[in-house]
Amino acid sequence: MDSNSTCSSEPVGKACRVVPCMDAVVKVFCVHTEPNFSLPWQQRRQSSSIGSGVIVGGRRVLTNAHCVEHHTQVKLKRRDSDTKFLATVLAMGRECDIALLTVNDDEFWEGVSPVEFGALPALQDAVTVVGYPIGGDTISVTSGVVSRIQTVPYSVLASSKLLGLQIDAAINYGNSGGPAYNDRGKCVGLAFRKNISNDADNIGYVIPTPVITHFIEDYEKSGEYTGFPTLGIKWQKMENPDLRNAMGMKPDQKGILVKRVEPTCPTSGCLQPYDVILSFDGVDIGNDGTVPFRHGERIGFSYLVSKKYTGEKALIKVMRDSEVHEFEITLSTHKRLIPGHLNGRPPSYYIVAGIVFAAVSVPYLRSEYGKSYEHRAPAKLVVKHLHALAESPDEQLVVISQVLAADINTGYEDISNSQVVLFNGQPVKNLKNLVTMVENCKDKFLKFGLEFGQIVILETKTAKAATQDILTARRIPSAMSDELKA
Questions:
Q1: Full DSSP string of 93-116
Q2: Which of 165, 178, 270, 402 is 20 to 30 A from residue 101's alpha carbon, by CA?
Q3: Where are the alpha helices (DSSP H) in 394-446?
Q4: 59, burial (CB in 10 Å: exposed 0-12, middle 13-18, buried 19+)
């Protein structure tokens, strides 16, 4: 029996019940200060939250990334202590919803052993979730079983699907980041969210150990979180026999059809639309996009890709024009035209004559239109979010987010979240590119070409002179965010 487990007092000869280590579970207190995308030159009022975490090897603590997102202060408290210790965030993986913390105070680590990780559980295996959910201040324990194992999107910020465990144990606010133990007292995952649909009951999700160890090893290799790689393609299933015949596939061949290849991805040099990917690293891919997982189970092939690390090589077998080819590809992270997060950076903005320019991101859309932004945001932005691909690594979708009403911009006040595609006839690649062109403009007019042929024109000298007056009147400290000043 490992040192992190104890045995309940039962008569000799009966099975010994393994109790998971409770002392390694900590309560996480975080003060958050979120950016204000509507007024990007300032921050929102700070707020507080609680979560759970677990002590692992190397004087480190694991919790969920969303528990410490936009943190200004993080404190940890052990079960057997009345002291809250200041913590430092070492790394955050927003796609996998994991954060790694440490505490410099030696007192925090005295007399506690880190958890031991167990193997990926099977269906119907018992799990015990430990944490500090709402309803009390002391530690809480809930039990259930593993009801499903599949690849799932961890959040709206995720660029790919990762392996996840679905369990029927109760997971509530505050449980996030707490460990899930198997019946041998080994940690098999971290609780991270529950299904709040009205049509679902007792469905919670756990980040399994393969994802956790990938995150930790990624940090140990590079000193930072580099992410989970993707193939950089859009694909479709090949379950229709006529589709397979049209692509020249033999009856014993299976695979997926490449629809689009991301221009910024390394695979764009070898993969093409209408290629059929037959296998990944020697593992055959089914017509439904799944691969063999364990005995009697199949799982999405993205699981094989996510097991790799950024920059690693992989061998893919591709059929093109009825001929089979093999390519060695370099895997990289996903570059989205509208990024899922800003890696903790403040939002970028630029103001000219009261016209506020911004780069669109998922946090920006959530701030403007709420959690249901995919249903409430303008269709033109939603389509770009879901389907548009970045043509270059530094490409951004730049919009006029709002117009601060003033005499000089009369007639433009109602423009909101319209994409800026041209400036004085030149394409706008990103916000910094727009700033450079405007600040260096020697023409008589500033001409901003918006989508659908709309234009905004201002006299150059008057616009630049009016900018400072508008900033002063609105008490805005600068016409642009700090990273654009360089």
A1: ETTTTEEEEE---GGGGTT-----
A2: 165
A3: 431-439
A4: middle
Token pair belonging to 146: 């593993």
**Catalytic residue, candidates 66, 70, 334, 385:** 66
Sign of CA dihedral 134, 139, 140, 141: positive
List of residues 6+ apart from 32 with CB closer than 8 A: 46, 47, 48, 49, 69, 70, 71, 72
Catalytic, out of 70, 97, 332, 361: 97
Give yes or no for a contact between 24 and 179, defined as CB atoms under 8 angstroms apart. yes
Is 140 known to be catalytic? no
The token duo for 328 is 């060695």
Q: How far is CA 217 from the centre of its chain?
A: 18
Residues 297 and 26: their CA atoms lie apart, in Å, by 35
Rama region for 229: left / alpha / beta (φ>0; ψ in -120 to 50; rest): beta
Distance between CA atoms of 182 and 179, rounded to whole angstroms? 10
pLDDT in tens, 180-212: 999 999 999 999 876 555 455 568 899 999 999
CA distance linking residue 343 with residue 112, whole number of Å: 32
User: In 3-state terms, what secondary structure has residue 477?
Assistant: coil
Q: Is 176 a catalytic residue?
A: yes
| C-alpha dihedral sign at 164, 168, 169, 170 | positive
Q: CA-to-CA distance for 405 and 67, rounded, in angstroms?
A: 38
Q: Is 334 part of the annotated catalytic residue set?
A: no
C-beta neighbour count of 111 within 10 angstroms:
9
Q: In 3D, which of 482, 480, 485 has the Cα closest to residue 349?
A: 480
The tens digit of pLDDT for each residue in 240-298 reads: 999 999 999 999 999 999 999 999 888 888 999 999 999 999 999 999 999 999 888 99
Tokens of 171: 């997971």
Q: Which two tokens stand for residue 346?
A: 């403040």
**Options 155, 160, 176, 348, the catalytic residue:** 176
Tokens representing 135 are: 């309803």
CA-nearest of 354, 476, 358 to 404 is 354
C-alpha pair distances (Å), 166 with each of 122, 158, 292: 11, 18, 19
Q: Which residue has the tokens 């809930």?
A: 142
Contact 159, 340 (CB under 8 A): yes
